[in-house]
């Protein structure tokens, strides 16, 4: 979760039916008792929607699709050397930043349980002076909503939810993500939604490296002590899924900063993933996926909303799934930026990228993702997913969904 400081609070193949029912029940219980806008600069005709693949091929060699090898060579990248440790070179002159330059070859065995547990949230703060800029249309700040631990096992209650791990210049980092449906490949989705700042550093950097999605991470919600000798299947019951392609908005790539900044309203991303081992799709493996709602109302008309994620900053430790349930309001960082959704929630860094869900006609759908929140962790804000967010999603689906 990206954090901003204000004078007051500030930002920051198993059973599919039970998992979906669990999310619906949580939202329905609260109702009776928890993106891009049209101003986004992203254009589906521009490379901002494309992501390059660097996937493993035969004999351990990286197979680079036509047109990409030359691009990598231009940036001085040898994929075999990259996989052998060259990815740790964060020379700014060679840090791939443009949308079409993404490369993430599978490095089998890199993300072991202990490395996952060492990952930290990339929580940042913004000075009070910078945070008190003129704001656009917004609703009163919500009261804090205490995050609730999700029931275990996660595969039966929140199967689409997982953790996104990646390497940044600061070290191993972690966010949250959600398995979403692929409308052009029903039942066989390999798509994951998360935040743009979980895959790309924004205007001052480029694509992060070794991006992996782990659905239902720590499925039984075990403690740190209980996981000290855990095997890979206990940590990652569905395995590790490498993002062979990633897309985020041009608005984030050009305007995103460590604290969100002007890129915050466009802070969303779509990953196309592949298993480290195996050949079944992510949706078939997990047993479920959520539809994406690109038409959610901008204020309380969205109804009760739930945010799910793996908060990692104190008082949480990133090992368990939590959720916050509230009615969303509007929030904007500046008068010339689109408003975002905002709910009360005490989740901290690490919950970034986690899905926001609502129920439409009895179906749980994803309507946003966690982007920013205040330093005292009393609320969360996420982008509205509108026309441009849908175009980005459709481009990823149509271009790479059958691979």
UniProtKB/TrEMBL annotation:
Broadest EC class assigned to this enzyme: hydrolase
EC number annotated for this UniProt entry: 3.4.21.-
Keyword vocabulary terms for this entry: Hydrolase, Signal
Cleaved signal peptide residues: 1-33
SUPFAM superfamilies: Trypsin-like serine proteases (SSF50494)
UniProt superkingdom: Bacteria
Entry keyword ATP-binding: no
Disordered: annotated segments: 1-20, 34-62
InterPro entries (alphabetical): Glutamyl_endopeptidase (IPR050966), Peptidase_S1_PA (IPR009003), Peptidase_S1_PA_chymotrypsin (IPR043504)
A GO MF term: hydrolase activity
Protein name: Trypsin-like serine peptidase
Source species of the chain: Streptomyces incanus
Lineage: Bacteria, Bacillati, Actinomycetota, Actinomycetes, Kitasatosporales
């Amino acid at each position: 979760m990206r954090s901003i400081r204000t004078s007051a609070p500030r930002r920051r193949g198993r059973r599919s039916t039970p998992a979906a029912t669990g999310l619906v029940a949580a939202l329905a219980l609260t109702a009776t008792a928890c993106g891009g806008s049209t101003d986004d600069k992203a254009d589906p005709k521009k490379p901002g929607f494309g992501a390059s693949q660097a996937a493993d091929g035969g004999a351990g060699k990286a197979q680079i699709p036509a047109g990409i090898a030359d691009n990598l060579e231009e940036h001085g990248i040898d994929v075999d050397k990259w996989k052998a440790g060259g990815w740790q070179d964060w020379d700014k002159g060679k840090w791939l930043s443009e949308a079409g330059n993404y490369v993430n070859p599978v490095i089998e065995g890199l993300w072991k349980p202990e490395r996952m547990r060492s990952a930290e949230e990339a929580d940042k703060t913004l000075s009070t002076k910078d945070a008190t800029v003129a704001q656009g249309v917004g609703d009163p700040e919500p009261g804090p909503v205490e995050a609730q631990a999700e029931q275990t096992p996660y595969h039966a209650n929140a199967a689409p939810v997982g953790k996104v791990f990646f390497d940044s210049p600061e070290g191993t980092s972690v966010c949250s993500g959600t398995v979403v449906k692929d409308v052009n490949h029903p039942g066989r989705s390999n798509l994951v939604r998360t935040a743009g700042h979980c895959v790309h550093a924004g205007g001052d950097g480029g694509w992060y490296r070794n991006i992996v999605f782990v659905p239902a991470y720590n499925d039984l919600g075990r403690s740190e002590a209980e996981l000290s000798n855990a095997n890979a299947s206990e940590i990652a019951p569905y395995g590790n899924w490498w993002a062979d392609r990633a897309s985020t908005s041009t608005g984030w790539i050009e305007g995103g900063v460590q604290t969100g900044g002007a890129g915050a309203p466009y802070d969303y991303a779509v990953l196309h993933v592949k298993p480290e081992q195996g050949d079944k799709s992510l949706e078939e493996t997990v047993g479920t996926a959520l539809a994406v709602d690109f038409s959610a109302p901008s204020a309380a008309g969205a109804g009760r909303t739930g945010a799910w994620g793996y908060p990692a900053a104190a008082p949480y430790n990133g090992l368990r799934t939590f959720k916050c349930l509230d009615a969303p309001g509007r929030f904007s960082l500046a008068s010339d930026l689109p408003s975002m959704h905002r709910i009360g929630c005490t989740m901290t860094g690490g919950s970034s990228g986690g899905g926001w869900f609502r129920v439409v006609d009895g179906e749980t759908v994803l309507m946003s993702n966690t982007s920013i929140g205040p330093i005292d962790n009393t609320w969360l804000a996420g982008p509205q997913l509108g026309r441009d967010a849908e175009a980005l999603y459709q481009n990823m689906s149509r271009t790479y969904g059958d691979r």
